[in-house]
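Intended use. Records like the one below are meant for learning the mapping from a protein sequence to its folded structure. Do not use them to infer anything beyond what is encoded.
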Amino acid sequence: MEELRVGLALGIPWLAGTLWVRALWREALTGVWSLALGYGYFLGLLAAVLLLRVQAAVGWPLDFAGPTLLLALLGLVGGGWAWRRAGFRFPCWDSKGWRTTAPEWFKRSLFLLLLAWISWRLFLLAQEIWLRPLYPWDAWTTWGVRARVWSELQQLVPFVDPERWLADASGSVYTVHAWEYPNAVSLLALWPTLAFGAWREPVAHLPWLGAALALSLGFYGQARLWGTSPLAALVFVWLLLSLPILDTHIALAGYADLWLAAVFGLAVCALLQWARTGDRWQGVLALLLALACPWIKREGLVWALVLIPAATVVWTPRRYWLWLAGGFLLALALWFAVGGVVFTVTGWGEVQLTPQVLQLPLLGRFELHYHDIWEPVARNLLILGNWHLFGYLLLAAFLLGLPRVLTEPWRLAGIVVTVAGLLMLFVLFFFTEAYLWALQYTSINRVFLHFAPALLFWALTVIARQRPVASST
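Structure written out for the chain above:
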């Protein structure tokens, strides 16, 4: 019975999100169902934990049944809308989209072989998740601690700073090392344990396995909508799931980095689709997932802001691109000439953006000094085993993409979001105290993981042959 409740707690939000995402498209386009399953998982699970917050805000005890019932009703509405708009036709095999002279039987065989490899990989990761107790450091000190406390007490008791915790005599508040972190990831771990009826770590880790599967489905669906063949799309999914650092974060369930990488990556996929086709529903998906990034992790705010320059390029007519670039360079020169800007955001605190100091509410204060760490960065990204040959694939994508960057809006949007993200990482690791993460070979790979699915999809758009999207048969 407990296993059934856990299945319902995870399956119904996933189904509800899937049906609502599917309802956005009138046509039964190739790849829409895969896309809906991928995006629907994240939107559905995030909606479920948001409803937990609502329960706590109105004073009700935490319970999975109420949110699950509400999401089931919403799923019925979304399913009815999807049926009225497009029906439930599923796509068939379509081998077009990648120039090759290989016979059809060979392509189908290779597709099935890759699918078997991916399935076996996910099965092994599922075993790791189910058999391993809570292990990752941040999960052990923050994410999992909050989830277990809330599970045991059946209420979202507050976590505060150590000074306030020491001064409180009521025993109604708690503290952890990173008490100020967003709570969405802890709520995601809490959600299935509420259905199980007690705290159990493998149950709390199941959403991480679903996140890996949903990221793969969403990535595959967007690749198919882009116009690549089933084989080409699955090859890139295979490249994604073969990244050792990504597999580590799936197996060692409990970190927030997998969630941020998946949500931000799928947001970038939707943004580039919107830039290419003008499909407003892709823009809606990009916006929803971008807004979710700061709720997952504090640095998610920075990743969400990275999307703004690319979105600006998409909104700006081609004839104004040179004016846009000139205006940006002029503003940058003026900013440097006046020594930066300092202002206060009511309710948030002081913002400093100067050549010497970067201070942002919720993120902290960073003294800016250049640190020469090219050697450890190159070793981490190009030589050591965390990324296989991913860094070289990105270099190839740059060489192929730069000559055609101004030919189409999506090409410029793709290079803008890529350069903006890499520039942010450059400032973080070369100009702040985070340079120690590279010297010590620690969090540099975790932070770069946030950008990896987005970069891989951008590489797909540059390397793989595209074709106009056609309706499935």
